[in-house]
Structures are given as C-alpha cells and as structure tokens.
Amino acid sequence: MTQELPKHIVIIPDGNRRWAKKRGLLPWQGHLAGVKAVEKVLKAAADIKIPYLTIWVGSFENLTKRSKIEINFLFKLYKTYFSKLAKDKRIRQNEVKINVFGRWREIAPQRAKESIEKAINLTKNYNKHFLTILVAYNGTDEMIEAIKNILNLSKTKKIEVTSDLIKENLWTKDLPPVDLLIRTGGEPHNSTGFMMWHTADSQLYFTETLWPDFEEKEFKRAIEEYSERERRFGA
Q1: Residues 62, 99, 138, 169: which is the catalytic one?
Q2: At residue 34, does pLDDT exceed 50?
Q3: Are the CB atoms for 207 and 222 separated by under 8 Å?
Q4: Can 14 be counted among the known catalytic residues?
Q5: Contact, 127 vs 159, CB < 8 A?
Q6: Which architecture does CATH list for 8-137+178-226?
Q7: pTM score, two decimals?
Q8: Which residue of 46, 53, 75, 86 is 20 to 30 Å from 96, comparing CA positions?
C-alpha cells in the first residue's frame, strides 16, 4: 500500500453469539471462532506493520451479566489464549508489547489472571509494536477512574485540569489517538463510552460481517478505505 496507513487501529469485534445462533451452535462456539478471527487480524496487522492495534474482547457487563456457563468459558478462553500469546515466536520476533486494560483483575479467576499477567510481564520491555487487549473494559469506567485520580491529586497540591492531565490519568494513557475504529456485526454504534478520549477524531468503519467471518481481506479493505479519506480534524 502506498497511501498513509493508520498508526493506531482499534477493533470492536461484535457478532460471535449471533454467528453461532445462525448456525445452530452454542454461544461458546461463536467465541471460539472469534479467537481464530483475532489470530488472522493480528497476522494481517503485523504484515502491514501497523504499530498499534487494540482489540476489545469483552465489556464488564459481558463478563458479569451473562450466563455463568458462558462467562466461565470466556475466562477459560482468555487463559488459553494469553498463554498462547506469551509463547508465540512472532510476538518475540516483532517485539510486540502486550497490555491488558479493564477491570479484569477484579473478576477473573486466578488462573486467567496469571495467564494475562504472564503475557504482560514477558513482553513489557518490547517497544516496536503494541497490542492492547481490553478485558472487562468500559470507557465510562476508565473516565470515572481518571476523574477520581485527579480529585485525589487535588487534595495534596494545586492542579490545573488540562487535556494532558486527563490523559495522564487514563488506563490507556500511553496509547496514541485512534486513527481507525472498526466495528463488525452490523450495529453501527459505540458502546459504554468506548475509548472516548482516544476516539474523538477517529475514522469509523462499520461492517455487516459478523466477527468470526471477518477475514484479512476485509481488514485490509478497511485500511485502504481509511487511506483514501481526507481527515480534517474539525478544520
């Protein structure tokens, strides 16, 4: 591709359960198929050399309000997948730093937490590519936590509330602005204030494709469409 590539892509991979229902399968089978789609996109992003990729794999509500069977399966899936990521030679070769944000430490079973922490710790010194995975994440929770931090800071010293100060107190403070937000599943909307600070000027790409059917070809098509757009940033 000769056009300008996005530096930071985020994906809301919607449609696992609907994909399973259409095929007469159980919800967990949709989530399993969704993991395979994640692997395809990670490979495509590495081939294209996208430096920052963020994927939202579950909101706090997804992991607390669904059936116990589905929630338990999701955490087992996270345990297995993060263990696999930690051992993936492509992660080492491409020096991919893995970060996981959200309230997963509050609700994840111990083995899932250990698997996630291991992937984070093994890659903490890498700085060529950045894979961020959002687990038990809501944008409203992130913003509320930032405001609480700033309020606590104001008790010990005089502060001026600026955009820089807000960003410094976000969970995702080290991420650059989101250039391209991709949402699959045919429902063109945002959810729970998703990355509200970073997506203020993002280009949006909505597709009817359910996440397990989202292939490398469509991922690349989304990037090509982004590259052809004129970004004005409100000017």
Answers
A1: 62
A2: yes
A3: yes
A4: yes
A5: no
A6: 3-Layer(aba) Sandwich (3.40)
A7: 0.94
A8: 75
